[in-house]
Amino acid sequence: AKAAGKDQAAVFDVAMRQEQADRIRLLERLRGAVDAAEFAVHYQPIVNLDDARPVAVEALVRWMPPGRSPIGPDLFIPAAEDSGLIVALGEWVLRRACADAAVWHRQWGTTVTVNVSPRQLADPHFTVKALAALRASGLPATALTLEITEGVLVRSGAHAAQALLHLSALRAEGVRVAIDDFGTGYSSLSYLRDLPIDVLKIDRSFMPADDADIRQAVLVRAIVDLAAGLGLTTVAEGVETRYHADLLRDLGCHRAQGYHFARPIPAGDLTDLLSEDAKV
Ligand code: C2E
Ligand code: CA
Ligand code: CA
Ligand code: CA
């Protein structure tokens, strides 16, 4: 039994080393990819629930290694965060998204929302970089929303204070701030009252399975009412069915995003989608 335990420890150790080696290799490839600009930004429409028309898009980054299939952000954003590479990558995404959206905004009034990681908001130069991205693209500040997760502003300490300064400065310029994945963190409700935010994105884990799933619907209703009372715009994520869309509209949720309406698509396809929508 003792020998078996020892063997198991050895196997575990090998697995750990393997995992560490994989992580290091991923990081090296990721660093090379940032230098070689092997990324693309795809866009998912966000629709107005009253008329199902696309009024905004979320920018979602993809890694496109040459000759291989695209890699989704869940697989590399955490490593990019830990290593700090997200600062350069995130700035590139913001510039790309502003440039693409400037065209859509001029033509159809479409706005864009971009994910910002905690590491980017800890960078003292973030406000300057974001304003430079806007200026270079010609996109008005009022057409840009930045998405952050609840933890960023709630944690006390220097990083939260720095993040708060950036968001307040950018909001003063007209940029809007959204709380992403709302309801999945551990923060208290008081921050909704106190912090500089404009939009609540209801996490997809709150979408009811069907019309018998009353408990989920009750939670969604409570979130929508709370947000409305505070003057925030609500966006539901993970809207996959007709039932979701109807329920959310009946509850007074403003906007929705999900496979029921559209998946994230390349910029060229999004241009086609918006011009088709403008015809009807
Ligand atoms: P997120 O910000 O919550 O983005 C929404 C994710 O849900 C996207 O996954 C989107 O493709 C997916 N999704 C959209 N509609 C549906 C639906 O109806 N059902 C389901 N099951 N999923 C849906 P994606 O593109 O794989 O992105 C994953 C996460 O990676 C994002 O979650 C975000 O946290 C992060 N991410 C993506 N792009 C960036 C970026 O440029 N910077 C940073 N910091 N993070 C990013
Ligand atoms: Ca997001
Ligand atoms: Ca989200
Ligand atoms: Ca998420």
Tags for this model:
280 residues, alpha/beta, eight-stranded mixed beta barrel, 9 strands, binds ligand C2E, binds calcium ion, Diguanylate cyclase (GGDEF)-like protein
Task: Describe the protein.
This protein is of the alpha/beta class and 280 residues long. 53% of the residues lie in helices and 18% in strands. It has 11 helices and 9 strands. The protein has helices at 2-36, 73-83, 86-108, 118-121, 126-137, 151-154, 158-172, 190-194, 214-229, 242-251, 267-279, and strands at residues 39-48, 54-63, 111-115, 144-149, 176-182, 199-202, 233-236, 255-256, 265-266. It has an 8-stranded mixed barrel with strand order 1-2-3-4-5-6-7-8, surrounded by 5 helices. α8 links the parallel β5 and β6. α1 (2-36) crosses α2, α3 runs parallel beside α5 and α5 runs parallel beside α7 (158-172). It is globular. The model has no long low-confidence stretch (mean pLDDT 93). One calcium ion binds at residues 180-181, 201, 237.
